[in-house]
Amino acid sequence: METTKKGHYVELPVFQGPLDLLLHLIQQHKVDIYDIPIVLIADQFIATVRQMEAFDLDVTSEFLVLAANLLYLKSRSLLPRPQKTQEEIELEEDLKQDLVERLVTYSAFKKIALFLNSKEVASGSKYFREIDPYEVISKMKQPNPLTGIDLDHLFQAFQSILSRVEKGEITQYIQTEEIPVEMMLDDIMRRLILYPAGMKFSQILRYRTRVEIVVAFVALLELLKDGRIRAEQSSMTNEIFLVPTAKAWDFVTE
Question: What is the pTM for the complete model shown?
Fold first, then answer.
Protein backbone atom coordinates (compact mmCIF):
# COMPACT_ATOMS: atom_id res chain seq x y z
CA MET A 1 0.00 0.00 0.00
CA GLU A 2 1.46 3.26 -1.11
CA THR A 3 1.52 6.16 1.30
CA THR A 4 1.34 9.69 0.06
CA LYS A 5 3.54 12.27 1.75
CA LYS A 6 2.03 15.67 2.14
CA GLY A 7 4.26 18.68 2.72
CA HIS A 8 3.45 21.39 5.20
CA TYR A 9 1.38 24.18 3.76
CA VAL A 10 3.08 27.50 4.28
CA GLU A 11 1.64 30.80 3.08
CA LEU A 12 4.52 33.19 2.53
CA PRO A 13 3.77 36.78 1.46
CA VAL A 14 5.98 38.32 -1.23
CA PHE A 15 7.92 41.22 0.21
CA GLN A 16 9.32 44.02 -1.92
CA GLY A 17 12.34 44.51 0.35
CA PRO A 18 13.61 44.11 3.90
CA LEU A 19 11.73 47.18 5.13
CA ASP A 20 8.51 45.74 3.69
CA LEU A 21 9.08 42.52 5.66
CA LEU A 22 9.93 44.41 8.85
CA LEU A 23 6.87 46.64 8.52
CA HIS A 24 4.72 43.55 7.96
CA LEU A 25 5.98 41.96 11.19
CA ILE A 26 5.38 45.17 13.16
CA GLN A 27 1.82 45.48 11.84
CA GLN A 28 1.20 41.78 12.47
CA HIS A 29 2.06 42.14 16.16
CA LYS A 30 0.31 45.52 16.39
CA VAL A 31 3.23 47.22 18.09
CA ASP A 32 4.22 50.85 18.01
CA ILE A 33 6.62 51.60 15.17
CA TYR A 34 8.47 54.01 17.47
CA ASP A 35 8.91 51.34 20.17
CA ILE A 36 9.95 48.18 18.31
CA PRO A 37 10.47 45.03 20.45
CA ILE A 38 13.84 44.22 18.92
CA VAL A 39 14.20 40.71 20.42
CA LEU A 40 10.83 39.48 19.11
CA ILE A 41 11.03 41.19 15.74
CA ALA A 42 14.66 40.16 15.10
CA ASP A 43 13.88 36.46 15.69
CA GLN A 44 10.86 36.49 13.39
CA PHE A 45 12.68 38.51 10.73
CA ILE A 46 15.54 35.99 10.58
CA ALA A 47 13.08 33.05 10.62
CA THR A 48 11.20 34.53 7.65
CA VAL A 49 14.44 35.13 5.72
CA ARG A 50 15.47 31.49 6.29
CA GLN A 51 12.02 30.37 5.15
CA MET A 52 12.42 32.42 1.98
CA GLU A 53 15.78 30.77 1.31
CA ALA A 54 14.22 27.32 1.85
CA PHE A 55 11.61 28.09 -0.81
CA ASP A 56 14.33 29.36 -3.20
CA LEU A 57 12.89 32.87 -3.11
CA ASP A 58 15.10 35.82 -3.99
CA VAL A 59 16.87 36.96 -0.84
CA THR A 60 19.06 39.95 -1.64
CA SER A 61 21.97 41.26 0.40
CA GLU A 62 19.69 44.02 1.74
CA PHE A 63 17.74 41.42 3.74
CA LEU A 64 20.97 40.03 5.19
CA VAL A 65 22.31 43.48 6.09
CA LEU A 66 19.11 44.38 7.96
CA ALA A 67 19.10 40.95 9.64
CA ALA A 68 22.66 41.58 10.84
CA ASN A 69 21.67 44.99 12.24
CA LEU A 70 18.70 43.47 14.08
CA LEU A 71 20.90 40.71 15.52
CA TYR A 72 23.38 43.32 16.71
CA LEU A 73 20.63 45.37 18.38
CA LYS A 74 19.18 42.19 19.91
CA SER A 75 22.53 41.11 21.34
CA ARG A 76 23.16 44.58 22.76
CA SER A 77 19.69 44.76 24.31
CA LEU A 78 20.29 41.46 26.16
CA LEU A 79 23.43 42.77 27.88
CA PRO A 80 23.05 44.29 31.34
CA ARG A 81 23.01 48.07 31.13
CA PRO A 82 25.90 48.62 33.64
CA GLN A 83 28.25 46.76 31.26
CA LYS A 84 27.59 49.26 28.48
CA THR A 85 29.54 52.42 28.05
CA GLN A 86 27.83 55.72 27.27
CA GLU A 87 29.26 55.58 23.73
CA GLU A 88 27.78 52.11 23.14
CA ILE A 89 24.39 53.21 24.45
CA GLU A 90 24.36 56.23 22.13
CA LEU A 91 25.37 54.02 19.20
CA GLU A 92 22.47 51.64 19.89
CA GLU A 93 20.03 54.54 20.12
CA ASP A 94 21.31 55.98 16.85
CA LEU A 95 20.96 52.63 15.06
CA LYS A 96 17.45 52.14 16.39
CA GLN A 97 16.43 55.73 15.56
CA ASP A 98 17.78 55.35 12.01
CA LEU A 99 15.78 52.13 11.61
CA VAL A 100 12.60 53.80 12.88
CA GLU A 101 13.01 56.78 10.53
CA ARG A 102 13.52 54.47 7.55
CA LEU A 103 10.39 52.50 8.49
CA VAL A 104 8.28 55.64 8.90
CA THR A 105 9.42 56.98 5.51
CA TYR A 106 8.84 53.61 3.82
CA SER A 107 5.38 53.31 5.38
CA ALA A 108 4.43 56.77 4.07
CA PHE A 109 5.58 55.98 0.54
CA LYS A 110 3.79 52.63 0.63
CA LYS A 111 0.50 54.33 1.55
CA ILE A 112 0.96 56.81 -1.30
CA ALA A 113 1.68 53.96 -3.72
CA LEU A 114 -1.48 52.11 -2.63
CA PHE A 115 -3.53 55.30 -3.06
CA LEU A 116 -2.16 55.91 -6.57
CA ASN A 117 -2.75 52.26 -7.47
CA SER A 118 -6.40 52.54 -6.40
CA LYS A 119 -6.76 55.64 -8.58
CA GLU A 120 -5.27 53.77 -11.54
CA VAL A 121 -7.68 50.87 -11.06
CA ALA A 122 -10.63 53.25 -10.73
CA SER A 123 -9.67 55.17 -13.88
CA GLY A 124 -9.54 51.89 -15.82
CA SER A 125 -13.28 51.45 -15.21
CA LYS A 126 -14.17 54.71 -16.94
CA TYR A 127 -15.29 54.75 -20.56
CA PHE A 128 -15.28 57.88 -22.67
CA ARG A 129 -17.50 58.68 -25.61
CA GLU A 130 -15.65 58.70 -28.90
CA ILE A 131 -15.55 62.10 -30.56
CA ASP A 132 -16.54 62.40 -34.20
CA PRO A 133 -14.24 65.10 -35.63
CA TYR A 134 -16.55 65.68 -38.59
CA GLU A 135 -19.46 66.36 -36.24
CA VAL A 136 -17.37 68.88 -34.31
CA ILE A 137 -16.21 70.60 -37.51
CA SER A 138 -19.78 70.79 -38.83
CA LYS A 139 -20.81 72.80 -35.75
CA MET A 140 -17.94 75.26 -36.13
CA LYS A 141 -18.28 78.41 -38.16
CA GLN A 142 -16.19 77.87 -41.27
CA PRO A 143 -14.16 80.83 -42.56
CA ASN A 144 -14.83 82.05 -46.08
CA PRO A 145 -11.83 80.90 -48.19
CA LEU A 146 -12.52 83.65 -50.76
CA THR A 147 -12.29 86.50 -48.26
CA GLY A 148 -10.30 89.34 -49.83
CA ILE A 149 -10.59 87.84 -53.34
CA ASP A 150 -12.63 89.63 -55.99
CA LEU A 151 -14.36 86.96 -58.11
CA ASP A 152 -14.46 89.35 -61.08
CA HIS A 153 -10.69 89.75 -60.89
CA LEU A 154 -10.28 85.98 -60.58
CA PHE A 155 -12.41 85.43 -63.66
CA GLN A 156 -10.54 88.14 -65.60
CA ALA A 157 -7.21 86.51 -64.72
CA PHE A 158 -8.56 83.20 -65.99
CA GLN A 159 -9.69 84.82 -69.22
CA SER A 160 -6.28 86.48 -69.58
CA ILE A 161 -4.54 83.10 -69.43
CA LEU A 162 -6.94 81.60 -72.00
CA SER A 163 -6.35 84.59 -74.30
CA ARG A 164 -2.56 84.13 -74.07
CA VAL A 165 -2.95 80.46 -74.93
CA GLU A 166 -5.05 81.28 -78.00
CA LYS A 167 -2.50 83.90 -79.16
CA GLY A 168 0.31 81.39 -78.84
CA GLU A 169 2.08 83.33 -76.12
CA ILE A 170 1.96 80.20 -74.01
CA THR A 171 3.47 77.17 -75.73
CA GLN A 172 1.02 74.32 -76.10
CA TYR A 173 1.88 70.63 -75.98
CA ILE A 174 -0.14 67.64 -77.09
CA GLN A 175 -3.43 67.88 -75.34
CA THR A 176 -4.32 64.94 -73.11
CA GLU A 177 -7.81 63.57 -73.35
CA GLU A 178 -8.64 64.20 -69.70
CA ILE A 179 -6.99 65.24 -66.44
CA PRO A 180 -8.71 64.09 -63.22
CA VAL A 181 -9.32 66.93 -60.78
CA GLU A 182 -7.99 64.75 -57.92
CA MET A 183 -4.69 64.31 -59.76
CA MET A 184 -4.45 68.05 -60.33
CA LEU A 185 -5.22 68.71 -56.63
CA ASP A 186 -2.39 66.41 -55.54
CA ASP A 187 0.01 67.89 -58.08
CA ILE A 188 -0.69 71.48 -56.98
CA MET A 189 -0.32 70.61 -53.29
CA ARG A 190 2.98 68.77 -53.84
CA ARG A 191 4.44 71.75 -55.68
CA LEU A 192 3.17 74.29 -53.13
CA ILE A 193 4.69 72.25 -50.27
CA LEU A 194 8.05 72.57 -52.04
CA TYR A 195 7.51 76.33 -52.37
CA PRO A 196 5.96 77.46 -49.05
CA ALA A 197 6.59 81.11 -49.99
CA GLY A 198 4.02 80.71 -52.78
CA MET A 199 3.75 80.33 -56.56
CA LYS A 200 2.07 82.09 -59.44
CA PHE A 201 -0.96 80.40 -60.99
CA SER A 202 0.87 80.04 -64.30
CA GLN A 203 3.75 78.23 -62.57
CA ILE A 204 1.53 75.33 -61.56
CA LEU A 205 0.76 74.61 -65.23
CA ARG A 206 2.95 71.98 -66.88
CA TYR A 207 1.62 71.68 -70.46
CA ARG A 208 -0.42 74.91 -70.55
CA THR A 209 -3.20 73.29 -72.56
CA ARG A 210 -6.80 74.47 -72.44
CA VAL A 211 -7.88 71.31 -70.60
CA GLU A 212 -5.10 71.66 -68.03
CA ILE A 213 -5.92 75.32 -67.41
CA VAL A 214 -9.62 74.55 -66.87
CA VAL A 215 -8.89 71.62 -64.55
CA ALA A 216 -6.24 73.66 -62.67
CA PHE A 217 -8.75 76.48 -62.18
CA VAL A 218 -11.36 74.03 -60.83
CA ALA A 219 -8.75 72.50 -58.52
CA LEU A 220 -7.76 76.00 -57.37
CA LEU A 221 -11.36 76.76 -56.38
CA GLU A 222 -11.58 73.43 -54.53
CA LEU A 223 -8.39 74.13 -52.57
CA LEU A 224 -9.63 77.62 -51.70
CA LYS A 225 -12.87 76.12 -50.45
CA ASP A 226 -11.00 73.59 -48.27
CA GLY A 227 -8.77 76.33 -46.89
CA ARG A 228 -5.55 74.59 -47.94
CA ILE A 229 -4.29 77.55 -49.95
CA ARG A 230 -4.71 81.31 -49.98
CA ALA A 231 -4.98 83.35 -53.18
CA GLU A 232 -3.53 86.86 -53.40
CA GLN A 233 -3.71 89.46 -56.17
CA SER A 234 -2.16 92.88 -55.74
CA SER A 235 -4.09 94.40 -58.64
CA MET A 236 -6.53 93.45 -61.36
CA THR A 237 -3.81 93.15 -64.02
CA ASN A 238 -1.40 91.10 -61.90
CA GLU A 239 -1.37 87.35 -61.84
CA ILE A 240 -2.92 85.35 -59.00
CA PHE A 241 -0.39 84.30 -56.36
CA LEU A 242 -1.05 81.05 -54.44
CA VAL A 243 0.24 80.54 -50.89
CA PRO A 244 -0.17 77.32 -48.82
CA THR A 245 -1.93 77.70 -45.46
CA ALA A 246 -1.25 75.79 -42.21
CA LYS A 247 -3.93 73.29 -43.24
CA ALA A 248 -1.88 72.46 -46.35
CA TRP A 249 0.58 70.47 -44.21
CA ASP A 250 -2.13 67.86 -43.61
CA PHE A 251 -1.38 66.83 -47.18
CA VAL A 252 2.13 65.74 -46.10
CA THR A 253 0.71 63.33 -43.49
CA GLU A 254 -1.72 61.89 -45.99
Answer: 0.38
